[in-house]
Design brief:
alpha+beta, PH-domain like, 3 domains, 4-stranded antiparallel beta sheet
Length: about 180
């Protein structure tokens, strides 16, 4: 039998991690810490927003790691062997380059009508767009929204074409833009 939940994201940590599942009516977070699992369910009809941002300390953490690894490689070079120092320095350089290629780490917040929770939705910000598009499609299907008008299309439509005055058209455009951004 096939499960109604499908996994959309996984964020691992040293003590466990969080797996995110999506169904037709809810978003489920399974946060594992050592041997305990805590489940949080967010109903799609109650979602107000999901915000993902790059963490500020990502670059600082990367530079500290690079300096420490370079000092360790220099110590190997000087006191152990130049080949061991070169190998360790090369591995350290590849590790830092890989971390740079993956991009900044991400923080995230999920806000529903009842609560605002900071849980790791994705590990890196570059993956956030893919995960958020899956959640957005599920929210649209749950709320019965067929097509989203773009904000530029709302602003560029003339108010006179619908027979409204200019102030009524501007108010309708702002209301429609607010409704679009709330999703």
């Amino acid at each position: 039998m096939r499960s109604a939940f499908r996994k959309i994201s996984r964020v691992a940590s040293l003590t466990g991690g969080t797996k995110w599942y999506l169904s037709e009516d809810c978003l489920l977070a399974a946060k594992r810490t050592m041997y305990a699992v805590e489940y949080r369910r967010f109903y799609l009809r109650d979602l107000q927003y999901i915000m993902v941002w790059p963490r500020r300390l990502w670059g600082t953490r990367l530079m500290i790691r690079a300096v420490l690894l370079a000092a360790l490689a220099a110590a190997f070079w000087r006191w152990v062997d130049s080949i061991a120092g070169a190998i360790f320095g090369g591995v350290a350089l590849l590790w830092v380059a890989w971390d740079l290629a993956l991009g900044p780490t991400a923080g995230s917040r999920i806000c529903t009508t009842g609560a605002s929770v900071e849980l790791a939705l994705v590990r890196r910000t570059r993956r956030a767009r893919k995960v958020l598009s899956k959640i957005d499609a599920a929210v649209r299907a749950t709320r019965g929204i067929v097509e989203q008008p773009t904000a530029s299309a709302i602003v560029t439509q003339p108010a006179e074409s619908s027979g409204q005055s200019t102030s009524e058209g501007a108010t309708a455009s702002v209301a429609a833009a607010t409704q679009t951004n709330a999703l």
